[in-house]
Amino acid sequence: MSNNQQSTNNKDAQNNNYMPPKVWTQDKDNGGKFASINRPTAGARHEQVLPVGEAPLQLYSLNTPNGVKVNILLEELAELGIADAAYDAYEIDISEGKQFGSGFVAINPNSKIPALVDHSAHNENGEPLAIFESGAIMLYLAEKFEAFVPMKQGAERAACLSWLMWQMGSAPFLGGGFGHFYAYAPEPMEYPINRYTMETKRQLDVLDTHLQDNEYMCGNGKERYNIADMIIWAWYGQLALGELYEAGEFLQVDSYKNLKRWAEQIAKRPAVKRAVDLPLKPIT
Questions:
Q1: Looking at CB atoms within 10 Å, which of 61, 95, 238, 278 has the fewest?
Q2: pTM for this one?
Q3: What is the 3-state secondary structure (H, E, C) of the chain?
Q4: Domain 57-148 sits in which CATH superfamily?
Q5: Percent of the chain clearing pLDDT 70 (strictly above)
């Protein structure tokens, strides 16, 4: 038996023999790509002043799938020529722990990107309005500018909000589940990879089946393109195009023909092309 096989067997034995303690404590490094910044506590870890540009909207983000969602909407609003939707975009490098700076925590206590500050609106204390969570930001902007979301109560709005919330509830299984164990965990583990692969493929099948009879997530015709498409494309569209985790072959994404057609169609939009590689200003 080789040393590598022995090491693998030892790790498997450790995993199989693990019993959770009565009370969990962080007594060792858990490994993985983000081990150096992961902690079981919230709040600021260092002082940070967020820059503020001249545009009405200030975006603090990174071009991950979560960040790309809001990038797409802001660029689509720019395509419509909406001056009040102008924005400055700043980089929050989550691999370096910049999301735990005091300035960012002040606008997003959950320390996740993206976060947005609207300097054209204010809270009860007269401070610029801060919005966090990508779904909340997108719904806020779409409703503020009455674009890319059905404003009238009814079937179209219900469909848009349903798919919007579907993404918010489903993507953690893809990113934090499949993506983590397939691409970022310190070593491959069969059970979690199988568990989250099965759920990811189920979600892909949900989308593929729905898109068999729908050009966009909420129906047919270019007027039905809305924030549901944008928010789902950032995760599942990019996955279907083989852009996430180098997992296209593993997940057999080419077999989801309807999803692939939709993903390719949206990827051709000028706003989407700009959003994926949006230039972000560094925070010094």
A1: 95
A2: 0.92
A3: CCHHHHHHHHHHHHHHHCCCCCCCCCCCCCCCCCCCCCCCCCCCCECCCCCCCCCCEEEEECCCHHHHHHHHHHHHHHHCCCHHHCEEEEECCHHHCHHHEHHHHHHCCCCCCCEEEEEEEECCCCCEEEEECHHHHHHHHHHHHCCCCCCCCCHHHHHHHHHHHHHHHHHHHHHHHHHHHHHHCCCCCHHHHHHHHHHHHHHHHHHHHHCCCCCECCECCHHHCCHHHHHHHHHHHHHHCCCCCCCHHHHCHHHCHHHHHHHHHHHCCHHHHHHHCCCCECCC
A4: Glutaredoxin (3.40.30.10)
A5: 94
